[in-house]
Each structure stands twice: as C-alpha cells, then as structure tokens.
Design goal:
This protein is an alpha/beta fold and about 220 residues long. The chain is built from eight helices and seven strands, in the order βαβαααββααββααβ. The chain has helices at about 10-20, 40-45, 50-55, 55-60, 100-110, 120-130, 155-165, 200-205, and strands at about 5-10, 30, 65, 80, 130, 145, 215-220. The strands form three sheets. Strands 1-2-7 form a three-stranded parallel sheet, covered by helices on one side.
Length: about 220
C-alpha cells in the first residue's frame, strides 16, 4: 500500500497529527504504533494508573526506560516511564492539565523561536480544549481534549487549602489562569460527559473517535 503521509509513533503528537491530517478526505494517512490501541482499563480508569506506570512492563503499556547512571545520584539510574500505545505518555500520565507560564513562551520567542510567543500559542490551546468551566479569554470549550475539575475530591483537600490560606499562601482556582502561584486543585484531562472521570488521552481525544475515516489507516 502507498500513503501520502506515514507517521511513526502514535503518541500525543502522532495521534493528534494523524487525526488532523486525515480530516482531508483527499489524502491517505498511515499511523504506525509499536504498542496497543490505548483503550486498556489501565488507561481509561485513573485509579489504575499505578499499574500502568509501575507495572507497565506487565501490562505492555510502558517502555519502562532507565537513565544512564547518574553521578549526582551516586551512580544510581532513574526510572523513566514512557507510554507504549496510542496516546503515548498521555495514556499513563497523572492527567494534570497545566500549560506552563506565558513568560516561558515569550522567552522562547525572544530567543528566536518565531511563532512560539504566548499570544501565538494561546489560540491553539483554546482550540484543543473542551473545558467543563466553559470558554473565556484563556480557555476553550469546543475542542476535542476534555479538561475537567476533579470529580470526587477528598474533604481533606479543602482542609489543606484552608491551612495554606492561613499562612498567606493564597487560593488559586485556575493554574492555567492569570495567577499560577498559590494552592488549589488542578484540572485534569478527564472526560466530563457520559464517560465522566475516564482519562482523556490524546488518542481518546483526537484519534479514537475518527478511526473509521477512509483516509486514516492505523497499524498497532
């Protein structure tokens, strides 16, 4: 078979790119992935993430890399879990949705990375995002990537945040908002529709809903 595009690796970037390219019915896209389909219960159920991260070699969801010996760690190696399957490491991460500080992007642009300033990238963040809080100047509500508040927070969380406020560490409601300093709950990449609470990996957001496209051929 011949294809217009061959994408090697179905991780976060590969899954997204395959989905976006295959929106054009006049092109053919082949996505190659060494792992599985990214739909395992260890991926979908957040509480099973420990099995994907630390038992990944058994579940075949994790490359389970080791660093070279580190001089600063007395020669010890470091464990580097990396996702294996559609969605890549977005299928085994902690699902925390945080985009970084705008000043970092602007610094990249100042160093010569044209198009990487905060005002350049923000529209793409908004386009990707389906935030359960709705759309505003910093967030989108119509994208494929579900961004949710924690569905079942513990009561002790609130006790901790109140303790922080008691020592002048102020409450932060949105770590992707105008103020990132402070204490508060993160938003997470989890579905907030009928699949409420399930992980929304890059594959679940971009790829799985579009697997039946004639322009897309996925080989795992």
């Amino acid at each position: 078979m011949e294809f217009d595009y061959v994408i090697v690796g179905g991780g976060s970037a590969g899954a997204t790119l395959a989905s976006r390219l295959s929106e054009d019915p006049n092109v053919s896209v082949c996505l190659l992935e060494a792992g599985g389909d990214g739909k395992s219960a260890f991926v979908r159920v957040p509480s099973l993430v420990i099995g994907a991260v630390h038992g990944g070699r058994l579940t075949n969801l994790n490359w389970g890399f080791e660093t070279v010996p580190q001089p600063g760690l007395n020669g010890r190696t470091g464990y580097q879990p990396r996702g294996k399957g559609l969605g890549g490491s977005s299928a085994i991460n902690a699902m925390i949705y945080i985009r970084g500080n705008p000043r970092d992007y602007d610094n990249w642009a100042e160093l010569g990375c044209d198009g990487w300033g905060w005002n350049d990238v923000l529209p793409y963040f908004k386009k990707a995002e389906r935030n359960m809080r709705g759309e505003d100047d910093l967030h989108g509500a119509d994208g494929p990537l579900h961004v949710s508040d924690l569905p079942t927070p513990y009561a002790i969380n609130e006790d901790f945040f109140e303790a922080c406020e008691a020592v002048q560490i102020h409450r932060t409601r949105d770590f992707n908002g105008t103020q990132q300093h402070g204490a508060g709950p993160y938003q997470v990449t989890q579905f907030h529709n009928e699949r409420r609470g399930q992980r929304c990996s890059a594959a679940a957001a971009y790829l799985h809903p579009n697997m039946d496209r004639a322009s897309l051929h996925v080989i795992t």
